[in-house]
Design brief:
By secondary structure, this protein is an alpha/beta fold. The strands form 2 sheets. A 7-stranded mixed sheet has the order 3-2-1-4-5-10-11, sandwiched between helices. A 4-stranded parallel sheet has the order 7-8-6-9, with helices on both faces. It is built from 11 helices and 11 strands.
């Protein structure tokens, strides 16, 4: 089947670089004579028919912007058969032959559902958590890490001035990749992630006391969101050590901001590749990067894969941050 019209949507949590991916999808398709529709607010937009035709200027001056020009939303209705059929009907009415879905694993499950019902889809991984197993780097991850580093560096300035301990929560509900890399980059005394069970006394208090004996007076503890409890953790640290302790939850500042060079280039490559897959008649695929090469996987295979946690890097972090 020849592809004459495609749609592009962003779904799930936003990530810096999504706009660059939308831009690449639109301009790649248009350069090949394929019409493009933008879908507002993810699968909600497909269900409600909230779509619009795109041209080259539709995506002008967005490559440097964070967030997503198409907006994004969770869509419980799409999990129902009725919701999926409404989405398919929108595509049928508008002659849409395929959809590029930019998001995380939940978004890819939706793309798989549509493909199984006869609407070809290709997924592009956009999530700051970097928790798509088939992909070494997801769109938004690099920007989020740099944002976290900038925020923690500012927190450290005041922690140093007051001889405090700062307990900082970064995003990562089920994955500690962001916390691990940020923790190394800011020289955190301890890094607490969901993948590694931690002992409060051994992994925090003893490390702080050992560093204090060598003259260190201020401390940074980085905690992944999936572990949580940073307010209570700060209170326990202060009670145990007598060192004034403060908790900071970085929150949604991590999702925003202008994407880094890495995220802009990666998103552009992935957007181009996704369109190429649809034009080649391929669907139910996830675009990924491995060993600096753009590759693709079957969505079902990609969702089954488990991303290994880098325990070696975790051990290195705690060896050098004393």
């Amino acid at each position: 089947m020849s592809v004459r019209k495609i749609a592009v949507l962003t779904s799930g949590g936003d990530a810096p670089g999504m706009n660059a991916a939308v831009r690449a999808v639109a301009r790649t398709a248009l350069s090949k004579g394929v019409e493009v529709f933008g879908v507002y607010r993810g699968y909600n937009g497909l269900i409600l028919g909230d779509i619009f035709p795109m041209n080259l200027r539709s995506v002008s001056d967005i490559i440097h912007q964070g967030g997503t020009m198409l907006f994004t939303a969770r869509c419980p209705e799409f999990r129902t058969e009725e919701g999926m059929q409404k989405a398919i009907e929108t595509c049928r009415k508008n002659g849409i032959d395929g959809v590029v879905v930019i998001g995380g694993d939940g978004s890819f499950r939706g793309a798989q559902d549509l493909t199984q019902r006869g609407l070809p889809c290709v997924g592009i991984p956009g999530t700051i958590d970097n928790d798509i197993a088939c992909c070494e780097y997801t769109i938004g991850y690099d920007t989020a890490m740099n944002t976290c580093i900038q925020m923690v560096d500012k927190i450290r300035d005041t922690a140093q001035s007051h001889d405090r301990c700062s307990v900082v929560e970064v995003m990562g509900r089920h994955a500690g990749y962001l916390a691990l890399n940020v923790g190394i980059a800011v020289g955190a005394t301890s890094i607490i992630v969901p993948e590694v069970p931690f002992d409060f006394e051994r992994d925090i208090i003893q490390r702080m006391k050992k560093a204090n004996e060598t003259g260190k007076k201020h401390f940074i503890i980085v905690v992944a969101e999936g572990v949580g409890g940073v307010m209570e953790l700060a209170a326990r640290i202060e009670k145990e050590t007598g060192i004034e302790s403060r908790a900071t939850i970085l929150g949604h500042v991590q999702r925003g901001g202008s994407p880094t060079v890495r995220d802009r280039v990666l998103a552009s490559e992935m957007g181009y590749y996704a369109v190429e897959l649809l034009l080649q008649g391929k669907s139910n695929r996830v675009v990924a990067i491995q060993n600096d090469r753009i590759v693709d996987f079957d969505i079902e295979e990609a969702l089954r894969m488990k991303k290994p946690f880098d325990f070696e890097l975790y051990n290195i972090a705690h060896q050098i941050s004393i």
